[in-house]
Every structure is written in structure tokens, then in C-alpha cells.
Recover the amino acids of this structure.
């Protein structure tokens, strides 16, 4: 079954000028598609550009290069009126449920504001009815409508944020680290709520997070990012069972599994060094400074984005048949790689 | 086995405008020599307050140790004077904090901060202190320590700063190390490096560790024993395997089921409904009653007695009571 593409991101770049003639290449040429009704996960460590992608797609940042097509329209070339209706279809859930709600507005004001702006309902009463309905959908009760955000716990606030994102009946929701500020037992509540809403409303999610175990749980497909670049993209089960990029392998093996027997017998690959600066990224492959397999070609050429098997894309010279000399230069490749 | 630390019936409260917050309500545990004890729980369960009280870092007022004892080397730390505590901190008991960005002084070089504790507690020449500091930086895996000594914290990355914090904590070779969420602020690949380091320093220095965390994966990796805290009480303790494979308390089970596992494919996560109780007026009975799927009438009214499942495995839950086992399945109401 060929699914409909709803979002097409092509060679997206977002560079920030930070003075002294320097540029921070937060996102440096990323391409992916998101299909209708799926959850697409973007993972990576802090500073890899995953949130910048979310914000650029949303139009909160202007792009530096490339294009973002949403339902066939380039979102950075919309006029004011078109932007207005685009916002109705794409909404965002933010990371920090404490900072993303106005402390001076009641819950009903928070949720009804988007409806008011878009003139969705005829009068206040109808809007309030819809607020009640939304609150119940996200697992709160209508009694909560007149309270202020500070009266709620983190998990409840995140539910309010979700209700606000749903207020305009969007098709597409960008969730930027929606659960990382929450306690473990509450994270599961919010993730289950997001899944329930997706089933009921046929929503499409772009789920941005650093916690690969949660991203794997919720996503159909996952893109792994490193220093402004997408390094691997595939279906979530495939990513776990057959990771190709050395960074993906290292990331998977770095995540501790809550099971002592598994933890003790796992082979692991511990990455040396730390993330280079995105102001002055390494030449060629950006991961080469930490990669145990780095070879001569890695410093010279940027690895191309290639399809290795069905629905599985990777940017790594190891899988490039044009490169003949694949001997590692660090001599560190003897480290065990879990498979 | 030798006990390094023995905490008995510890109660800690904080006076606020809203009333008295009973953050820790009768906590009892001990730590054996050379082991790693993980204290696991959600935010606000009292795990950080418990660990700060061992270091004598509860600000008073508003905080107050209402009752209980913390025995370390035959001395009750709750009764120690400030002067006595200063002799213990750093030398006998050290602490690593969550955020390496704020735990270091930005105006002093890393070398000065490393040597500071050493010179305070021991009579050493400058040169000798410097040598020890360099050796410690080497141990925690900081490349090029002679040069790095002269640098300031802002010149280090997050992972490197956490290594410095660890080096400062270990420089006087303490017997007990308290690590309060030491890897929460770090990225996973850096976390893996730091956890690896913990294993290495424990092997080399034989230090006993209390690890405060909410991440069950980290616990599975480095803990020997686990204490699960909820609403100011330790509701279950046991060895790592007892807790992960034979958890008895519904909260512990719930916690284990609510995290997704990288190596498995679950259709749905099983969350724990509701939120933890308010510690201004904690429930008289079991604090988990309102969220517990097996709650019985008694749970709400009387705090459960202490049940011993094995020498190392203890739990506080009415389901362990013989009377509950008799009726299990018939009247245990599943909400």
C-alpha cells in the first residue's frame, strides 16, 4: 500500500549567523518525507538540530535553503492568508509544560484562544462547549476549565498543551520533546494519550525526542540525526534490529535497558570523544571524529544519502561501493560492535 | 558484610508558608562496604532530601530532621556539629550533583577547585597536591591534565565537567560517594562514558556509592541493591534481581511496566494512573492507595506492616499480609 505523503522536506538548511562572520549550521541539508497517519520520529543528542527542524517546518524559523512542502505547498512561500490556514492544519506541542502555558490565562482561555483567532465557532458558548469536549478528550475534566496552569501537575499541563494543539482540528502535530520534562510513570500516560488521539483522529505526528527507547515505541519510522545531518532513516523495528550507521549502533548500545540480565550480557560500543562544534564541523562526514571505522575518504567527501535496502537509507561511506579503500585510520575498529 | 552507613527511621520536614511538608517520612536503609545502592523514585518522593541529609546539607530553617538517626562509623550524623560535619564532608562522604554546569565555580580554574578540598583536609605541599590532582584527572579520563588544570569550567564540555565534578568528589578518597542524578543532564553517549567510569572508580578505589536516579536502565546497569521510594517512604528494597524480576509492590511493578524497552516491542505501555499524593497532608495509610489497582479497604486506613520476603528483599504492602493472600482473587478489587 502506497501511503499519501503529507510532508516533504528536501535539502532543508537552517544556518544561524552568530556574529564575527561565523555561521552555526544547525540543520545542514536534511531530506525526508512524512506520510499521512504515521508517526515519524526524529532522534539525536542535544545540539543535533532536531528541534530546529521542527521549528523550521512549523515556520517559526525561516529556512536558509531547501524546501518544505506541506500538502504540496511550499510553506516558506505562503502569503499571509495561506499561512493563516496552514497554521490551522499544523500545530505544535512543546517540551516544557511550565513555560509553554501563559500563567495569567485560565485553561479555557488557553485552549479557546486559537479558536477565537481563527473564528471557528460563532460565540463564546460554543467555544466553551468545545473546550469542555477537548478537556475530556485529553483526560481532564470540565471542572478544570476555570483554573490556572499553576494549579496543575506537569503531566496535566502537558495534557492542556495537547488540548490547545487539538483545538483547531489539525491533521499534523509536531511534538518537540513532549514527555522529557515528565516523570517516568506520567510519561507513559501522555504517550498513550497521544497514541489514542492518533487512532481516533487519524493524526500525523512528527515526534522529536532524544530518548530512543520512547521514540522507537511510538514511531513507525525514525530518522537519526547527528550534528545537523540525517545519518540514517528506516522503520523503527528495522532501526533496532539492523542499524547500519556506526552512530546509530553506538546510540543504541549506549541506552541502558531496564533488565539486569540483558544489561550484563550486552556487548557495547562506547563512543570516544564528544560532539564537535556545529560552528566549525569536521570536513566530509561530520561523525568521522568519533567513528571507530573512519577511513581516509570520510575526511574528504561528504557521504551521500543512499538507499541500502527497502525503506532503509543511510549516509555512510562504509556502504558506498565507489570507495575502494575502507581501512579504518584510527585502528579503533577492533571494538566490539553489537549486532 | 560491613555496614558503611545505617539510616534508621529518618523523618525530615520543611516548614513553608503553606504548612509543613513531610518530605521524608520514616526511611530505614543501610549501605554495605563497596556496594552500589540505587534509590529510585519520581520527583518529589524524597530521594534527594534523604541523600542531602547524609551530607548534612538540609538547610535549616526551613528544613529539619524531626526524628531518626544516620549512623556513620559509630557516629550519628544527625547530631554532628557543623565543625564535625566539615571534617566528614569530602574526606569520608562526598557528593556528585546533577548539573555539572552549576556545580563548579565559574571564576576559579579547575585545578584550584580540585586542590581546594585536598589542602583543606590534608597537610600537603603545593606540588604534592598538584600531583594528586593530576593523577585524579587522569583517573577520571581527562586527557592532557597538566594543561587542563589551568583552564576554567566554561572551557570544558558537559561530559568533561561532570568528570571534573567526579574528580573533586573523589580526590580525598572518600569511603562513601553520593551521586544525585549524575547523568540526567548528559546525552546518552556521554552517559555511557560516565557510567563506565563509575564502574572503574569503584573497582580501583573500593568506594561505596549511593546512586539517586529515576532511570531504571541506569539502575539495571550499575546498582547492586535498589530501594524504591514513594511519597517519602521506602516501599520496597531488594537486590537488583529481586526488584527487577520479583517485584512485589504494585508501584514497583507499575514503574517497571511504564517504561518502553529498546529490545522489546510492546503494543501499549501500562502507565500508573493519577499522580503522587500531596506531602502537606500525606495519607495515613499506604500513600499509593489512590493509584493502586489492587487497593483494599485497609490500605487507605492503616500503613502496611513491613514484610520480609528474603534477607535482602523487604516490602511494605498489605498484599503481603497472610489475610490478603487468603482472599486474593475473590475480594481484592481491581479498579
Amino acid at each position: 500500500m502506497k501511503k499519501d505523503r503529507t510532508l516533504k522536506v528536501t535539502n532543508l538548511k537552517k544556518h544561524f549567523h552568530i556574529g564575527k562572520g561565523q555561521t552555526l549550521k544547525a540543520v545542514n541539508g536534511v531530506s525526508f518525507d512524512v506520510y499521512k497517519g504515521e508517526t515519524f520520529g526524529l532522534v539525536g543528542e542535544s545540539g543535533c538540530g532536531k528541534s530546529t527542524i521542527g521549528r523550521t517546518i512549523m515556520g517559526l524559523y525561516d529556512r536558509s535553503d531547501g524546501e518544505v512542502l506541506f500538502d504540496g505547498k511550499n510553506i516558506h512561500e505562503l502569503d499571509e492568508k495561506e499561512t493563516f490556514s496552514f497554521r490551522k492544519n499544523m500545530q505544535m506541542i512543546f517540551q516544557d509544560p511550565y513555560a509553554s502555558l501563559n500563567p495569567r490565562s485560565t485553561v479555557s482561555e488557553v485552549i479557546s484562544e486559537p479558536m477565537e483567532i481563527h473564528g471557528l465557532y460563532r460565540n463564546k458558548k460554543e467555544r466553551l462547549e468545545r473546550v469542555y469536549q477537548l478537556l475530556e478528550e485529553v483526560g481532564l475534566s470540565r471542572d478544570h476549565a476555570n483554573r490556572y496552569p499553576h494549579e496543575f501537575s506537569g503531566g496535566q499541563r502537558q495534557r492542556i498543551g495537547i488540548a490547545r494543539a487539538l483545538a483547531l482540528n489539525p491533521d499534523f502535530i509536531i511534538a518537540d520533546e513532549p514527555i522529557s520534562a515528565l516523570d517516568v510513570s506520567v510519561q507513559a500516560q501522555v504517550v498513550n494519550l497521544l497514541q489514542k488521539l492518533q487512532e481516533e483522529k487519524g493524526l500525523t505526528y512528527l515526534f522529536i525526542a532524544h530518548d530512543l527507547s520512547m521514540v522507537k515505541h511510538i514511531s513507525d519510522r525514525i530518522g537519526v540525526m547527528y550534528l545537523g545531518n540525517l545519518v540514517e532513516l528506516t522503520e523503527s523495528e528495522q532501526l533496532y534490529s539492523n542499524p547500519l550507521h556506526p552512530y546509530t549502533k553506538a546510540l543504541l548500545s549506549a541506552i541502558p535497558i531496564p533488565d539486569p540480565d540483558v544489561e550484563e550480557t550486552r556487548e557495547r560500543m562506547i563512543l570516544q570523544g564528544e560532539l564537535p562544534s556545529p560552528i566549525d564541523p569536521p570536513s566530509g562526514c561530520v561523525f568521522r571524529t568519533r567513528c571507530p571505522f573512519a577511513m581516509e575518504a570520510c575526511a574528504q567527501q561528504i557521504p551521500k544519502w543512499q538507499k541500502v535496502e527497502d525503506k532503509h537509507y543511510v549516509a555512510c561511506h562504509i556502504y558506498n561501493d565507489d570507495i575502494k579503500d575502507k581501512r579504518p585510520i584510527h585502528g579503533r575498529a577492533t571494538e566490539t560492535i553489537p549486532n | 558484610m560491613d555496614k558503611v552507613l545505617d539510616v534508621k527511621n529518618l523523618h525530615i520536614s520543611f516548614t513553608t508558608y503553606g504548612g509543613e511538608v513531610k518530605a521524608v517520612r520514616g526511611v530505614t536503609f543501610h549501605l554495605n562496604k563497596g556496594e552500589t545502592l540505587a534509590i529510585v523514585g519520581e520527583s518529589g518522593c524524597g530521594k534527594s532530601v534523604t541523600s542531602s541529609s547524609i551530607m548534612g546539607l538540609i538547610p535549616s530553617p526551613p528544613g529539619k530532621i524531626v526524628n531518626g538517626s544516620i549512623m556513620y562509623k559509630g557516629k550519628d550524623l544527625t547530631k554532628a556539629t557543623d565543625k564535625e560535619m566539615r571534617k566528614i564532608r569530602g574526606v569520608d562522604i562526598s557528593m556528585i550533583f546533577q548539573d555539572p554546569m552549576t556545580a563548579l565555580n565559574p571564576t576559579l580554574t579547575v585545578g584550584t577547585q580540585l586542590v581546594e578540598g585536598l589542602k583543606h583536609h590534608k597537610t600537603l605541599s603545593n606540588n604534592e597536591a598538584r600531583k594528586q590532582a593530576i593523577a585524579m584527572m587522569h583517573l577520571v579520563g581527562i586527557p592532557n591534565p597538566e594543561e587542563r588544570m589551568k583552564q576554567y569550567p566554561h572551557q570544558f564540555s558537559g561530559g568533561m565537567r561532570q568528570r571534573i565534578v567526579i574528580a573533586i568528589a573523589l580526590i580525598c578518597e572518600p569511603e562513601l560517594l553520593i551521586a544525585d542524578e549524575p547523568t540526567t543532564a548528559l546525552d546518552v553517549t556521554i552517559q555511557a562514558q560516565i557510567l563506565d567510569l563509575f564502574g572503574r572508580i569503584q573497582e580501583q578505589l573500593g568506594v561505596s556509592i549511593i546512586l539517586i536516579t529515576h532511570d531504571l536502565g541506569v539502575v539495571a546497569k550499575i546498582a547492586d541493591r535498589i530501594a524504591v521510594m514513594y511519597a517519602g517512604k521506602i516501599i520496597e528494597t531488594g537486590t537488583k534481581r529481586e526488584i527487577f524480576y520479583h517485584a512485589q509492590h504494585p508501584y514497583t511493578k507499575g514503574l517497571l511496566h511504564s517504561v518502553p524497552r529498546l529490545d522489546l516491542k510492546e503494543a501499549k505501555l501500562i502507565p500508573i494512573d493519577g499522580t503522587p499524593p500531596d506531602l502537606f497532608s500525606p495519607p495515613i495509610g499506604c500513600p499509593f492507595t489512590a493509584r493502586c489497582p489492587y487497593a483494599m479497604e485497609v490500605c487507605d486506613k492503616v500503613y502496611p506492616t513491613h514484610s520480609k520476603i528474603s534477607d535482602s528483599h523487604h516490602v511494605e504492602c498489605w498484599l503481603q499480609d497472610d489475610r490478603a493472600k487468603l482472599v486474593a482473587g475473590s475480594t481484592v478489587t481491581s479498579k
Summary: The longest strand of chain A covers residues 5-17.
